């Protein structure tokens, strides 16, 4: 399948940061092109200079490495002038021939912007006849799986139709293990009514995004220990307590009384940059402090290299300018320090849906 370019979704306002990241990632792999950027559109299209094969692109451009991308779609058709009265015919013409094979699922998506939201109802309605047409052509498998919220699950080789406007769309494909598994690249979570703050969704999404179900069961098992720096009022501590973990909550503010009543939380009114674990070491360090990203990165690295924690999830607040450069420098610094100590680790960073102006980083160390 010939691929024309990459389409990545992002939070509105972060298009330039994503474009810089795409240009950096593709150039590093010897893939050349240019990014088309329009502010507050919630997506960036990277056009290849030379059409490439899907397998070649998919192996070299990895979703997990793109911190500002919500979704990664390999575009095989750009339709900027659709016939609004007969879009399906335009789509059918593109899908002539056998080069596309068979898709397992198909979704119709839009940007997470005010303009994009006006397309939401149309996208839901258009998805039904589109899938019917794809099945009739033998391009889409007959059996599909629906999620609990009645949305189409993104499974197997998935065809994406991304509408910029009612007469402007991209057609592309995503493959397993190299994409978000959620429509529009958005992992929506329900706010727990007993949680002390909405920040709890940040950590819940991070846990579900960075850790596999098996890792969640083993690494966040009952009675494992954690420190929460900048804990008050307890949004992140709440997620740990829900998993029956023992938590040292560190902050100068007041903790939620219901969390303290669980008996799983010890509160310490202390400076997060000077605190050390009560028993010398914990399994997890989590941190959502509002501080300069380099200061937080240095603190997290200090805990890891000195054996104060085994694993960590933390937020790096994004500066007003040069956001991609700042995050890249912080992550490079962390990895250099871990490598100096010959530590074995896995690191990943993502601008998650429930974050606004911060990137979440997860580091899991591995013993040999």
TrEMBL record:
Gene3D superfamilies: 3.30.2300.20, 3.30.70.2810, Vaccinia Virus protein VP39. It comes from Opacimonas viscosa. S-adenosyl-L-methionine binds at residues 199, 232-235, 251, 271, 288. Its EC number is 2.1.1.186. The active site is at residue 317. One of its GO terms (molecular function) is methyltransferase activity. Residues 197-291 form the Ribosomal RNA methyltransferase FtsJ domain. Coiled coil: none annotated. It holds the Pfam family RlmM_FDX. This is 23S rRNA (Cytidine(2498)-2'-O)-methyltransferase RlmM. It comes from the Bacteria. Signal peptide: none annotated. Keywords: Cytoplasm, Methyltransferase, rRNA processing, S-adenosyl-L-methionine, Transferase. Residues 86-174 form the Ribosomal RNA large subunit methyltransferase M THUMP-like domain. One of its GO terms (biological process) is methylation.
